[in-house]
Write a structure and sequence with these properties.
This protein is 61% helix and 15% strand. The strands form two sheets. It has a four-stranded mixed β-sheet with strand order 1-2-4-3. A two-stranded antiparallel sheet has the order 5-6. It is of the alpha+beta class and 292 residues long.
């Protein structure tokens, strides 16, 4: 089944009229889903569409979503209001000129406000740009999902290898000679002999101490719980989907059982197995932190 990482990157680009645009999204590990948005002024609505698309598709991860636009430099266009110029010229011709006053010149008339008009070259139609950006979001999200799944496939291979290693160590602990009845009896006899040599112990106290030592040497419950947790990990991997939180919980439980196994091990060989198990569980925990 499909397993997704929370780490991924995707980019979608396009051109609308004179405008070049590029969507980018980066996702990393996160306890929940957090989508942070950065878009140019005036395109907040399109940005919210992209945010919503990510929120509907992903379940966990911190996402940085951005939109960059590149526009050509605006070229100002100049237009002469010929109607106004003609009216001003006619008016100046009708008005008597005082002696010594030169007639109105063209450059003087052009300097009057409103005769010369300028306007910026219009950008691409906003509706067309919004449509193209929305289509880009679809590609962006699809590519991000595939990137996260590609890393998820690699994560699954690593986690399955760690699962095999933990199962082998659990089997090694199960078969460890140090926890066989004969070995436990020998350690118990040695402990009892040491208590007798210490002297001052009544038979009842001696019996209680023997029971405590025997109970501490029994790691049957820890081995059974380890087996159950490992089975649960395998079932989750087969199910796929958003299983990161559950795997993280199982990693904590596996670590707890490995710690108890080490604490109760009365044998050097069993203690070493427990330490090796703790190391693999820690590696497992680090990897599942990346799973969605």
């Amino acid at each position: 089944m499909i397993l997704s990482s929370m780490t991924g990157f995707s980019r979608a680009t396009g051109t609308t009229g004179p405008v070049q645009w590029a969507w980018e999204v980066r996702s990393v590990n996160g306890r929940g889903l957090d989508v942070r948005l950065r878009v140019p002024n005036g395109l907040e609505a399109v940005g919210e569409v992209a945010r919503t698309a990510l929120q509907k598709t992903l379940t966990r991860g911190q996402c940085q979503l951005s939109l960059n636009l590149t526009r050509p430099e605006a070229r100002a266009r100049v237009r002469i209001n010929e109607t106004l110029l003609a009216e001003l010229a006619a008016a100046t011709a009708r008005v008597p000129r005082p002696e010594g006053l030169a007639p109105a010149s063209l450059d003087g008339l052009l300097g009057i406000r409103g005769v010369i008009e300028s306007e910026d070259e219009p950008a691409a139609e906003s509706d067309t740009l919004a449509h193209d950006l929305a289509e880009g979001v679809v590609r962006l999200v699809a590519d991000l999902v595939e990137a996260r799944r590609a890393e998820g496939r690699q994560l699954r291979a690593i986690i399955e290898g760690q699962l095999v290693a933990m199962s082998r160590l659990r089997q090694a602990a199960e078969a460890c000679p140090g926890r066989q009845p004969e070995a436990v009896k020998a350690r118990l006899s040695a402990s009892i002999a040491a208590l007798i040599e210490a002297g001052g112990l009544d038979p009842d106290r001696l019996h209680q101490e023997a029971v405590l030592i025997a109970a501490k040497a029994d790691v049957r419950e820890e081995l059974d719980r380890l087996s159950a947790h490992l089975d649960s990990v395998g079932e989750l991997l087969d199910a796929g989907g958003a299983i990161g939180r559950k795997l993280d919980f199982l990693a904590q439980e596996l670590g707890r059982e490995a710690n108890t196994l080490c604490a109760k091990a009365g044998d050097i060989a069993l203690s070493r197995i427990g330490l090796d198990l703790k190391a693999v569980v820690e590696q497992f925990r680090e990897q599942v932190q990346n799973v969605e």
